[in-house]
Amino acid sequence: MAEQSEPRRFVPAERFPVDLPATGALMPGDSVGARRFMTVTDGRPFALEGGGRLQEITVAYETWGHLNSDASNAVLICHALTGDSHAAGPISSGHPSVGWWDDLIGPGRAIDTEEFFVVCSNVLGGCQGTTGPASVDPETGHHYGSSFPQVTVRDMVRTQKLLGDRLGIGRWRSVVGGSMGGMQVLEWGAMYPRRVASLIPLATTAAASAMQIAWSAVGRLSIVTDPGFRGGDYYDSPDGEGPWQGLMLGREIAQVTYRSAEIFDDRFGRAHHDPRREFHPWGRFEIESYLDHHGQKLVRRFDANSYLVVSKSMDLHDLGRGRGGVVAALRRLRMPVTTVSISSDTLYPPCQQAEIHDEVTAGGGSCRYEVIESPQGHDGFLLESEPMAPLITKALEEAGN
Amino acid sequence: MAEQSEPRRFVPAERFPVDLPATGALMPGDSVGARRFMTVTDGRPFALEGGGRLQEITVAYETWGHLNSDASNAVLICHALTGDSHAAGPISSGHPSVGWWDDLIGPGRAIDTEEFFVVCSNVLGGCQGTTGPASVDPETGHHYGSSFPQVTVRDMVRTQKLLGDRLGIGRWRSVVGGSMGGMQVLEWGAMYPRRVASLIPLATTAAASAMQIAWSAVGRLSIVTDPGFRGGDYYDSPDGEGPWQGLMLGREIAQVTYRSAEIFDDRFGRAHHDPRREFHPWGRFEIESYLDHHGQKLVRRFDANSYLVVSKSMDLHDLGRGRGGVVAALRRLRMPVTTVSISSDTLYPPCQQAEIHDEVTAGGGSCRYEVIESPQGHDGFLLESEPMAPLITKALEEAGN
Predict the structure, then answer these.
(1) Class of A31-208+318-400 per CATH?
(2) Are residues B232 and A279, on separate chains, in Cβ contact within 8 Å?
(3) Residue B179 annotated to the active site
(4) What is the number of other CB atoms lying within 10 angstroms of the CB of residue B30?
(5) pLDDT tens string A109-142
(6) Which of A1, A240, B63, B75 has its CA 20 to 30 A from that of A130?
C-alpha cells in the first residue's frame, strides 16, 4: 500500500443537468427535449399512502404514436429504479443514452408505435422531471431534500392514473414493465382494475422479499453514511460536496446483483485491468474497473435522494398490504396477465414470477408464464429484447381481442 | 426524512482488544489466553509471493489434543476471511465467541481431539495475533498500516508450513477448511504434496471467480472510501477515528452473500423492526436490523486493514497460477480429497466444488464429492455441523489407512 494510490473518493467532474422545472411553472404540453411535463395535482395537496403529502406534483413523460379516436390503443410503460421516461428514442436533451427499451418500442417493433399510443412517465420521487427530492418545494422555495416524504409504488401508480386522466385515456390496453416497473404493473391491476385491459409484469415480484430488502438496504446505507450526504440536504452545500461516493458504491453493489456469475466469468474472468499491478492492493481486476465505470456513470445522471426514496418504495412494495395478503390480491386479478422470468435472475428469481402465475390462475384468472433462458441475470429484462419481443407482441394482441 | 433520524455513522463504543504481541518479544510457547505465539521467521526476511517482504512473522495458534510419538496424528484447520485460531473452545481472553467450529472439534467429535492433534493458526495478514497490518513493524517501531505488503494464500500456507516444522509435524494427516480455508487446503496440496496425507476443502474454489472478486471489491471499496480510513494509517489517529462505518458496510454486504433468500424469508420475511415507522425512510425491516447487528459486531473485533489484505488475497487465489492453469494443477493432486458443497451456496456455488472433484478424478486422483442439502447458504459450512461431521470423520479415517 506504500504507493499511496488507494482509490480516491469519487467526485464527478460533470453531472448531466437534470431539467427539473419549477412546479406550477409549466402549462400542460410544455416540453424540454423529448419530454413533456404535466402538473397532475389540481390545487389540492396529494396525500401519500405513508401519511405525507405533496402540495403539487409535476410529471415528466414521453409519448410515441397517436391516440386513436376511441382512446383504446394506449399502452403505459413503467420504468425501473434508475430508469426514466425515455423508454425509446435517441440521445437528446437531458437524456445521455438512447431509450432503455428502444429495441422493443417503435414502428414495427413489439410495442408498435404505428399501432399503439405509448406513454412512459418518470416515477414520483424520481429525478428526471417528475417531482422528487431535488425539486423545489413550492411552499418553501427550496429543494425538498430531507423534507421529501417517503412515497410508495401505489403513490407512483396514482400519479400515473392522474396523468392518464389528463391525456384522455380511460383504459390502458396494457401496462408493461420490469423489476420496479412490474411492481407498478401489478398495482395497476389491483388499484384500477377497470382502467387496464391487461398486465405485463416482467422479472418482478408481488412483494419484496427479505433478500431484496437486504440489497436495497446496503445500497441506501452506503449513501446515507457518506459524510457528503448531510442528512439529505446537499443540494446547496457550499463546497459542492454530495454523497457521490456513496451513490457510486450503492450502484456498484446493485450492479453485481443485476448480472450473473456466468456473464461475469465470460466477460471478465480473472483478467487484470493493470497486469503490472497484479499483487498490488489497489491493482484492479477487469470486473472492478467495470463496476467502477457503472458506479460513476450513475452518479453523473442520478440524484442520491431519489435513489433512497425510490429504492425504499420497492422495499415497501407489497401487493397484499390492506388486501388480505399477496395470495388474495393476486387471486383477485381478472385481466389477462403475461409474466416473464429470466432464468439466471437471482435478484428477482423465477419463483417470484411463477408465484404470480400460480396465484392468478388459482383465483380463476388468466396468466401466461414464460421463462427466457439467458445468462444475463436480472438485467435480462432490458437486454433480451429478441426473445422478449414475441412474448409482448402476443400479450398485446390478446389484450385487444 | 424530517425527523433527522437517518442512520448515523457507526462508531463502536468498545472494540475488543486484539492481543498483538510485539514481534520478537515472544518465546516459543508463550501464550495469551488459549493462544500461543511462535515467531516462525529465522532472522531472515520472509519474501512474499507478490514481491514484498516481512522482516519477521509471528503466528498465533491454538492446539487441541496431543501429538503422538511418530507425529502422524496432526490435523491442520484453516480458517476463513474473518476467522481466527479459535476454532474450538470456550469464550476466553481475546475471544468473544466460542470456537467457530466447536461442534466439529473436540473429544468424541468429528475431528476427535482424543485421537488427533489439532492445530489452527491465524492467517498471515490477520489481526488475531499473527503478523498483520496492525502489528508493529520491527524496522520502524510503528504499526505497519499502509506499508503492510499484500499477501497471498500461498504466503499464508508457507507460514503454516513453518509453524508445522517448528511443532515437529512432518506430514499432516489432513488439512481441512471452508471458504478461504479451503483455498489454503488446496494450496497445501499443490505446494507441499509430501507434507499432507489428505485434503478436505469445503465450500471453496480452485480460483476466485469474477463474481467472487466483485463481491470482495465492493466490500473493500466501502472501507477505503470511508474518510476515517486515512489511507490505512488510522491506528494512531488523534481523534480515534477509523473506517468503522466502511468496515461495517463491507461486512453487511458480505453477510447477504453468505446466506440465502430462503433463510432470510424464513427468519425475517417482511417483518418491520419498528412497525410504527413502516413508511418512514429510516424505519428498518428486521432484515436490516440483523445486518446492522452483524456489521457492528465485526467492527468490534476485526481490523479494517486486515479485512482489505485478506479479502484481496482471496481474489488473488488461483491454484493454477504458475502451474499451467487450474485444470492442470487439480489433475496433479494425488492425495485423497474430500470436497463438500452446500446446496444453497450462491457465493461458492456447488459447480466450483464439482470442478475440483471432476478435475482431480480426471487426473487419476481420488476425490469424494458430497452436497449437503441446506438452505443456510455459504455459511452452511460453519452451521451444518451435523451433516458435515460424518463426511469429515470418513475422510480422516480414510486418510489414516
Answers:
(1) alpha beta
(2) no
(3) yes
(4) 14
(5) 999 999 999 999 999 999 999 999 999 999 999 9
(6) A240
